[in-house]
Specification:
Immunoglobulin-like; alpha/beta; 29 strands; elongated; 26% helix; 5-stranded antiparallel beta sheet; TIM Barrel; 18 helices
Length: 620
């Protein structure tokens, strides 16, 4: 009996040799071609699967599958493609790596501060090994979880990773599979969890050989924005579902990952009784055993059912990305609300509502799409939402890939950063945000010339939804995604990471306040209220135990003098008084200093500033 960790692919056997198994129902014969000219037939199992043991194969052996005596192709479940997606697959022994994280117990939804990163641009070297060298600084900053952008093997020298074609193979561009394991091991040693962004909604167009094995991997019954939809509910879909659920468990098992980020789940179509996302969630939890895991999804229509427990008809995910918060914050920071920002005002009420309730659109009419958007999510725990003011998409969906601190005034940026990091939802930073990186983040992808032309054209057309980027002059200024210089410009500068002390101090102090303050760290459902103070200012009150409340005042406009303050949230708890605990205008963050906020019984709030008050007993 052969031992297998996953149902497909090449598995090293402890007794020697390698066991191969592949699903190829459209083929009559499958042979393994391996190094040295060897060719071994696999036995048909009668269910579309072929399998067999090759005694001569070992870890490091290069191989392909010859189909029906004709062409030879990489393994759909290859664990490594050392020469890229068009080259041979390589046998990998996941048990050869010696882990040091045996005491690591995983990471759940509570208490996280997420850091989204693209390994190819996170350091100048763009490797797992180089990234390891920067993890200690992220841990010191207070980051608790790394969200790694997709790494499944894709063609070319650089790319975002969302066009992966070998879903089990960490790309050769960043190192070997064991280099990735060492990265995760290093992160765990620093107290950092690691989740991986996976793409289960489509497969890239270049290097995708799945149809050589079975056309049933895909379906024409749905329309997908990025390619052929995956067949999760049609004829012969059971092995397809197994392929993807096995992939989800594979990352948790063989790489000790702490969870997944599921890309664009609105483009995953499944009318089955049990949705594939429910199966993915279940497989992640089962594989992790007693280790805690975290699964977050991107879902543009904001379907709250994804995070409902399975017993309530949901998929049991932990959280959803909240674009509503980002879009409202972006409008507040920049004043621009074109294209998909059209339905947002950036108003204080939107900020208050997003922090209290998560999604702003929970079934109301959404004029940009000319249809309702969202579903009811009132009463959901704050941990069910991931908030951000930057991510890879939103920074890149602009003319020059500029970051928030480059398109907003310094005061507004500091104030919005405070809101992000103190709100009860799970905050996420995008790489370089913590030190106000000057490097842009642009769309880049290295494809063959024909596909590169189509990608460049498509990218320009996509950005025309923004009137400011639709003019001929603006279109001429757009960077070429296929130019290596575009990619190189996006690499972070390590010196900035060390030298931009004001931005680093801002983030470090806010994250420390979030982690260290019992009221901010509680993330309790219903323990927060808010009120609008002016057209550009609002207050949030975090309720603690026995009157130990916190007050966060955010003013994104001019100085505000409240000579009359008929807002009960501003009143301190009985027998207590408000004490200023933190201000975004502190000089250590590059601010102008904070004058007294109460004068002769009146409130005076500086413009473009956020302040935090704690409540203390009046005799203290």
């Amino acid at each position: 009996m052969f031992q297998r960790r996953i149902p497909i692919g090449a598995e090293v056997q402890r007794a020697g040799g390698v066991h191969f198994r592949v699903w190829a129902p459209r083929r009559k014969t499958v042979h393994v071609l391996h190094e040295g000219g060897g060719e071994t037939p696999l036995a048909a199992e009668g269910t579309g699967y072929f399998s067999g043991h090759v005694p001569a194969a070992r870890p490091g052996t290069l191989y392909r599958y010859r189909l029906d005596g004709g062409g030879a192709f990489p393994d759909p479940a290859s664990r490594f493609q050392p020469e890229g997606p068009h080259g041979p697959s390589q046998v990998v022994d996941p048990a050869a790596y010696r882990w040091n994280d045996t005491a690591w117990r995983g990471a759940g939804a509570r208490g996280q501060v997420i850091y989204e990163m693209h390994i190819g641009t996170f350091t100048r070297e763009g490797t797992w090994a180089a990234a390891c060298g920067e993890l200690a600084s992220l841990a010191r900053l207070g980051i608790t979880m790394l969200e790694v952008m997709p790494i499944a093997e894709f063609p070319g020298r650089f790319g975002w990773g969302y066009d992966g074609v070998d879903l089990f193979a960490p790309t050769r561009l960043y190192g070997t599979p064991d280099d990735f394991r060492a990265f995760v091991d290093c992160a765990h040693g620093e107290g950092l969890a690691v989740i991986l962004d996976v793409v289960y909604n489509h497969v890239g167009p270049d290097g995708n050989y799945l149809k050589e094995f079975s056309a049933a991997y895909f379906t024409d019954r749905y329309k997908n924005e990025w390619g052929e939809p995956i067949n999760f509910d049609g004829p012969d879909s059971a092995p397809v579902r197994e392929f993807f659920t096995a992939n989800a468990g594979y990352w948790i098992d063989e790489f000790h990952l702490d969870g997944l980020r599921l890309d664009a789940t609105q483009q995953i179509f499944d009318a089955s009784r049990v949705n594939i996302l429910c199966d993915v969630s279940r497989r992640v939890r089962e594989t992790a055993g007693d280790r805690a895991t975290f699964i977050v999804a991107e879902n543009e229509p904001q379907l709250a059912s994804l995070v409902r427990p399975g017993a309530e008809g949901g998929c049991g995910l932990d959280a959803l990305w909240n674009d509503d918060f980002h879009h409202a914050a972006h409008v507040a920071l920049t004043g621009h609300h074109e294209a998909y920002y059209t339905d947002y005002l950036g108003s204080p009420q939107e900020m208050v509502s997003a922090v209290k309730h998560g999604f702003l659109y929970q079934g109301q009419w959404y004029s940009w799409q000319k249809q309702p958007r969202g579903s009811p999510a009132l009463g959901f725990a704050p941990t069910a939402f991931v908030h951000y003011i930057q991510n890879h998409d939103q920074v890149a969906n602009s003319a020059r890939g500029l970051r928030a601190h480059q398109v907003a005034s310094p005061g507004k940026w500091r104030a919005m950063t405070a809101l992000l990091l103190l709100a009860p939802q799970t905050p996420m930073l995008f790489q370089g945000q913590e030190f106000a990186a000057s490097s842009p983040f642009l769309f880049f992808a290295d494809h063959n010339p024909e596909l590169a032309r189509a990608v460049r054209k498509g990218r320009g057309e996509f950005l025309t939804q923004f009137p400011s980027m639709a003019t001929p002059e603006a279109q001429r200024e757009l960077t070429d995604p296929g130019d290596i210089a575009t990619f190189e410009r996006c690499r972070l500068d390590a010196e900035e990471r060390r030298n931009n002390v004001e931005a680093l101090a801002l983030h470090a102090d806010l994250i420390a306040l979030r982690h260290g303050d019992a009221v901010f760290s509680a993330q309790r459902t219903g323990a927060l209220d808010g009120a609008v103070l002016s057209t550009e200012a609002f207050v949030l009150r975090f309720f603690g135990d026995a009157g130990d409340d916190r007050l966060v005042l955010v003013n994104l406009g001019r100085d505000l003098a409240l000579r009359h303050a008929p807002e009960p949230l501003l009143a301190p708890p009985e027998g207590r008084a408000w004490q200023l605990a933190w201000s975004s205008e502190d000089a250590k963050y590059g601010g102008e200093g904070t004058p007294p906020l109460e004068r002769e019984g009146h409130w005076h709030f500086p413009g473009e500033c956020a302040v935090v008050f704690t409540s203390a007993k009046e005799n203290e």
